[in-house]
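Section 3.1 - Work completed
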Amino acid sequence: MCEENLEYKNVFLHFLNYDTQTIFNIEERYLTKEIEKQILLGIYISILISEEYTFLPFGFPYETELTYKILLQLSSLRREGLIRYAGKELDLHSFIEKKKRWLRTL
């Protein structure tokens, strides 16, 4: 059944991150261009169906070189506020400090 007046809230997009790529062996199974295409498609669709903006995890740009590259391409969407970052931490600084503490344990 298709409803014409679907209302979506802001979308938290968390797919094809580093953990998912590793668990499903994505880099071995698909070409980088294919992975990039799927991530971009997911981001574009989530922006279109979101009420105001799409949330990405704080760490998404830093998890892989590919995700960093993709988000550089989308910098105008970030500047317009259509892509925002979120996480358990209150802000990016707290996220970075948490990751530094975690890295020290390795």
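Second construct:
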Amino acid sequence: MNLASNKSDLVFLCKDTKINRTDKTNIILSPEFYWVRIFDLPVKSVSQAKSLLPPLFEDICQDVDNLSYQVIKLENDKFLCFAYENKKIFDTIKNSGINLSLVNGIYFAQNECEGLQSFFIKEKAFSYTQDGILVKIPKNLLENAVDMEEEIHKINLSSHKVNIKLYNNLLNNKQIVPIIVICCVFILINLFKIVDYSNQISTYEEKIVKIKENSKLPKSILQVNSIIKAYEKDIKQEIKKREAIEYIFEKKEFTLSNLEIDKDTINLNFNNTNKDKIESYLKKKYTILSSNIVDSKLIIRIKI
């Protein structure tokens, strides 16, 4: 098991590293966590070079879609290219005892250990090849190697941080693509529906305007409400009149010779009727405005 030193904020991380850190930590990744190659590519920029990498690593990793890539431009068309599994690095850091929130930066050993031609840490050994690539080798093949735990505090970190996501992805790239496609289709369907609904609303609004014009209806809601209220008032008044007439005719013993309706009053003419009796009956529901006997006829005016 590899135990990293606690005397520095630098940790050389191997697959079996176990450590307890309570302060900010910079991590140097051993070659166990990445593949590195130098390519001559017919492009000028790092972003262009990065887009060409997946097929160039297919011979060492079949599932290149789940790899992350990083590129450093060396000279002209020459690029130093890294491929790594984000989840593998994330899990190792998490299980090593290092608090993820305390990780300050992560670096490839390829870039940070150039001052050490060969070195070992516990039972693991690493050395640069003639091409300048840092590789893991059997420890018994090393000559004049130094102990990384004694030399790590001398390392000056470069500006080439590794772009690592320090959280676990619930979905891989192959799962994400179909989900994105489904979401895009869903968005397009809803956009189509919104446009369709907008067109329908416009059509309905045009029809409403035409109906109003043909029916000579008022254009504003306020005018419409005013008309409705006026009609409601008239309807209520007509209902009151009908109820009053029904009430008057319920009393069969009264002989009604004439009935005239005028807005909120009713004029009644009775023949051979007891004045006190008819007045008493009408007062139960209505106000008597006048009551007179003319030529043996009882003429009463009531308010509805």
